[in-house]
Amino acid sequence: MSDNAKAKGRKGSILIPLLLVVTLAACSVAGYAVWRMMNKTDGHAAPAKVEPPAAPVFFALDTFTVNLVNADNDPDRVLYVGFTLRLPDEATRLRMNDYLPEVRSRLLLLLSRQDALKLATEPGKQALVEEIKQALAPPLVKGQPAQVVSDVLFTAFILR
């Protein structure tokens, strides 16, 4: 055999194992990359299980019908309004239910002082919501905590 044939045979015998090693390394790197992407945690621990928020506590009140203050002293200006209070907890709802006549009295006094022209606008209604929260905030009797009203939701609102 010639030297050329021997060199060619040696080259072929070295080339095959070299390609095999390179292919094996490439497959290993690709497999590791896929495994890392599938098990990626972004350096954060597993998120803690988030508790769902507590169910809202609502306190529905009967509708109110009151005469309104107006510039003309027209006795026919009437507000018919119904609303539901959103409360922070069941204890507040029970306390308001126990003292319902006191709650309704505060609200009737507040509603009867309202101006018809102001209530006809959106800002006037929003101001009424804040006034209702403030009217119900003081304790109903001495020794009790202040009431917290999270929101006032209108269920009926007729201004005549």
TrEMBL record:
Gene Ontology biological process terms from the UniProt entry: bacterial-type flagellum-dependent swarming motility; chemotaxis
Membrane topology value: Single-pass membrane protein
Location relative to the cell: Cell inner membrane; Cell membrane
Broad class of the protein's primary localization: membrane
Cellular component GO terms held in the UniProt record: bacterial-type flagellum basal body; plasma membrane
The organism's place on the tree of life at top rank: Bacteria
Membrane-crossing segments per the record: 12-35
Keywords: Cell inner membrane, Cell membrane, Cell projection, Chemotaxis, Cilium, Flagellar rotation, Flagellum, Membrane, Transmembrane, Transmembrane helix
Pfam families noted in UniProt: FliL
Family membership: Belongs to the FliL family.
Function recorded in the entry: Controls the rotational direction of flagella during chemotaxis.
PANTHER family registered for this protein in UniProt: FLAGELLAR PROTEIN FLIL
Protein name: Flagellar protein FliL
Originating species: Mixta tenebrionis
